[in-house]
Amino acid sequence: MYNDGWGPYPATREIPMRKDRGGKMANKSLKNVRFTIVGDVMSKHVEFIDGNETVTSAIAMMRSKKVSSLVVNRRTHEDAWGIVTRKDIVSEVVDPGRDPKDVKVFEIMTKPLVMVSPALALKYCARLFHNVGIRRAPVFDGKEIVGIVSNTDIFNAIEL
Asked: I need a labelling partner for 74 at 20 to 30 A (CA). Which of 28, 42, 80, 111 fits?
């Protein structure tokens, strides 16, 4: 036994077990989420913007289309897509006090993108979002972007 100031502990203490979270999907409302695929919950309406546009035009487009992100077009077929989000605008333009009229979208976008397949199970999509630290990802079918999926889409797929 030793005392670290918080009370006596045995020299070899076991790490406490994680709280029981139901084991084999005890919560049946999550069972459907496990087997639902991205293509079933994604938004098929994706807005694109050119990287040379100003952040002012990106803000105007996001407001008019009522979206929280824009996919930035590739410059060439071999180039990667990018994405600009409300968070990018707030942290890269508003916070430092830059003028949105003087900042181009390509200066603040995230590139390259993490993309998902429309056949990916939501369980694995949620895990990917968590591990990578993203909130949304374009859905790519191998030829083109066919949609966008967000953590809100995954959240709304949970049946009550």
From this structure: 42
Q: Which tokens hold the place of 58?
A: 């990106």
pTM above 0.90, yes or no: no
Buried b (16+ CB within 10 A) or exposed e, 91-108: ebbeeeeeebeebebbeb
Residues 148, 45: Cα–Cα separation, whole Å:
8
Q: Residue 147 class from Cβ within 10 Å (0-12 exposed, 13-18 middle, 19+ buried)?
A: buried
Give backbone dihedrals phi and psi of 33, rounded to 5 degrees, phi first: -65, -35
- How far apart are alpha carbons 56 and 96 in whole angstroms? 16
Are 56 and 64 spatial neighbours (Cβ–Cβ below 8 Å)? no
pLDDT digits (tens, 9 = 90+) for 125-137: 999 999 999 999 9
How far is residue 110's CA from residue 132's CA, in Å, rounded to a whole number? 13
